[in-house]
Structure formats: structure tokens, C-alpha cells
Amino acid sequence: MFDFIFYRLLQLIGDAEIEESPVFCPSHPVEEKESEEVKHIDFDLSETEQVQEAVSCLPTWSEREVNCLNPSFHRWTIMDYARAYHSKKTTPLTVAERFVAAVSESSKPPFNMSFFINYDVEDIMKQAAESTKRYELGRPLSVLDGVPIAVKDEIDCLPYPTTGGTSWLHKLRPCTGDASCVKYLRLCGALIVGKTNMHELGIGTSGINPHHGSTRNPYNSSRICGGSSSGSAAVVAAGLCPAALGVDGGGSVRIPASLCGVVGLKPTFGRVPHSGVLPLNWTVGMVGILAGTIEDAFIVYAAISSKLPSHQNTALPKLCFPLLNSSRPISSITLAKYGEWFNDCSDDIRVCCSNALDKLQKHHGWKSVEVTIPEIEVMRLAHYSTIASECSTSLSSYLEKLDSSQLGWDARVALAVYGSFSSKEYIKAQKISTLNIPSYIQILDLFKDNILHLVVGAALALKSMVL
């Protein structure tokens, strides 16, 4: 597999003559377009105020009854927790106690789910007690107060070490404080419940980990969750947390989200601060969100989105929140379908996606139009070259001090391939990015003008593997 990718890269990138100058950070036009379907958020709002603005954009559904004592499975949303706390049907302390018991049970035979690399019962209960006290005083910080949120072990979060899914990285790179995104969640009162499992160093998409156990899929424990944010997707799918943080460079949030049946969001480059995150691929790796619903992903996005870009060379427009309470009819949605890409998957997945598309068109009146995305294969390989080169460079000082036996076999193979890319190939990959900016802007304009709304296609080309 790696040999084939490397050969294709040499074919399409190594020998290419490209006149354009390289662009080393994602480039997107800064434009604040007025729309009746979005709300522009001022730069001077606090994290809790941004969360409140997000809540004001949600539909005002009548409160559904949540039975806290019913043993049947129910995946709670952030608003379910907030309403239950306000109405005194339960408390953050009670939720924390049940969470700890559930995680402990899931870690033992016959389950062996391997959701977490680290969780600290004392720290969880301390946070829960403080949150419970705030509710007793009638002063919760936000709707996130007391809501359990998990964090991928690629993101700094005290009191835990940041292992990156390894057995050694935390010894060479101690965690000295919270990442910015974690700080923002704490300011909103979120109950940080531990560090989730991940594919070693984030350089695989299965979630199989030789050091901390392979995270099992809650829907079928004999299958993988996908990766690299495997544990974050699994805890959400299992109903342990309504949301979790992941990191996504080439699908590491979106792949496990797909295999676990949850929402996966990779935000725009620069929108969520990257400080305190392992710098494995700094121009394409973004802190992302896994959540049980779009609304929950939206609320967490509002909490962690920064007013300042995470990269000094990036200019960002104001935060733009979708009005999910809009009265716009759902039948007005137009999907873009690139046939060559849509069909590039196994037959059973292609048939499943085609059936889903047919249902959306027949039952909801959605439209589908054929489009072409130029040079998508070249862009994919250039993206791979970028990830590989940046990961190899960022880890080089650590790997020099490391016995390779401390790495899993797939990490060893991947890093050997990553280290074989030359500076010429990296530069040419960035030139390809420049070359495709006009096509990107052209497609973006179609979305801005509401001609198109979504590009449709399979999230994955193959089904979940058996462990």
C-alpha cells in the first residue's frame, strides 16, 4: 500500500514542472457576506457568550422528557444535560459517578472497549462537585457546565500526560498546561473526563493501537472504530459523552465519525487555536469535534472557536453561525455529485450511497447535479506528501532518541515512508495547492451563492475492518 502511494507520488508530483509559487498555509478568501441564514458574531464576545449565541440559533423545540432512571439506551444531548441540571432531575456529580462506573465496566472483560488512555476519577469528581455547586447557586457558566467532554490524547489537558497514542512521547514532551481549546471548554464549565485512545501518532486510520489496546466499535465490538480519533468517536457513539475533541489532518475526525455513526467536523484552517496540540502536521491538522448531533457539534464549535487566528499569517472573517432555527424549506437543498469520486468505493458502499441519495431526492425534494472537481487525485497525493513530510519533520528530534522497537509496526513503516520524501516533493506539493486555488474559489462561489449546498459522496471506500 505505502509502496503504491509512494510510486504514484513520484509519478504525479516528483516529475511535474509547475511554475506557480508554493503556498505553505491554506489560503481562502476573507469575505463577510450578509445572509438571512447566518448570524455574524462579534470579535469581542467571551467563550460563554459565543456559546449562548449558538444556543439562540437552535430550534426552540418543546422540552422532551428524559427519564434519568430508565436503563434503556438513550444518547443525551448537551441540552438534555443542561435541562436536567436546571430542573434538578440530576446533578453533574451523579452524572460523573455514573460515567466513571460505565467507563470502568467498559474497560474490563468481556467488553475491553479501550475507549480511554487516561482518566482520573478524583479530578472528574472534583470538577463535577464544582459544577454542581454552581447549579445550586443558580450560576452555571453556560449550557456546557457539567457536561462530560472527552479529549483526544493528542491535545494537552491537565492533569494528564499527552502520549499521542505512544508509550514514550510524554516522557520526551511533558504536558505543562491545557491546550487553548481545552481552556475555552473549561471557561464554559465543561466536565473534562479524560484522554481518549487514538491510532499511534495519528498516522493511521484504523484506531488499532499496540500500546493502549484497540478501540472497539460500540455498534459491533468485533470491528474497528476508524482513526486516528478512534476513542473520541467511540465514547460519543456509546453515549458516554455528547461530544469529544479530536484532531484531523487527513480524515482523522471524519473517518471514525463515519464508522461510529456520529457527527465529525473539521473546522476551517486557523479557526480553532492549535496551541497545545502535538504539532504532527501543522498546516493540515486541525482540532475537530465529534458529537452525537449537529447541534452539539455546533455548541462545542462555538466554545472553542477563537477570535484570533491560530496562525499568524491567516486572516479570518468574523465567526459565522448558521441559523438552525431558520424556516427555510428543506426541499431547497442542491447536492453536487462528482461521479468519478462518488463511485470510487466498494460496490456495496456505492449502492448504499446511491440509495440514500435517491431517498433524499424522492422524500425531501432535494436536487442533485453533476459536477467536476479538477485534479482531485493530484490534490489528494499532494495532501499526502504534505502530511508525511510535516509529520516526519516534527517528530525527527524525538525519533533520534528512540529505539524503533518502541513503535508499532505500522507506525514504523509509515514513518520510514514519510522520511523518504524530499524537500523537492514537499515544495511541489505546495505548488499544486497554489495551482488549484482558482478551482477552489470557483466551487466556493457556487456555495456562497446558494447554487450548491453540499458535495455528496461516500465517507469511506471500504467497510469497517474486523479486529
TrEMBL record:
The protein here is known as Fatty acid amide hydrolase-like isoform X1
Q: Which Gene3D superfamilies match?
A: Amidase signature (AS) domain
Instruction: Report the PANTHER family cross-referenced here.
Output: AMIDASE DOMAIN-CONTAINING PROTEIN, TRANSAMIDASE
SUPFAM superfamilies the UniProt entry points to: Amidase signature (AS) enzymes
Keyword Iron-sulfur on this protein? no
Quote the PROSITE patterns the UniProt record gives.
AMIDASES
Give the similarity note: Belongs to the amidase family.
The record ties this protein, via InterPro entries, to: Amidase, Amidase_CS, Amidase_dom, AS_sf
The superkingdom listed in its UniProt entry is Eukaryota
Extract the Pfam families matched here: Amidase
Keywords attached to this Swiss-Prot or TrEMBL record, sorted alphabetically, are:
Hydrolase
Q: Which residues form the Amidase domain?
A: 118-403
Q: Which GO terms describe its molecular function?
A: hydrolase activity, acting on carbon-nitrogen (but not peptide) bonds, in linear amides
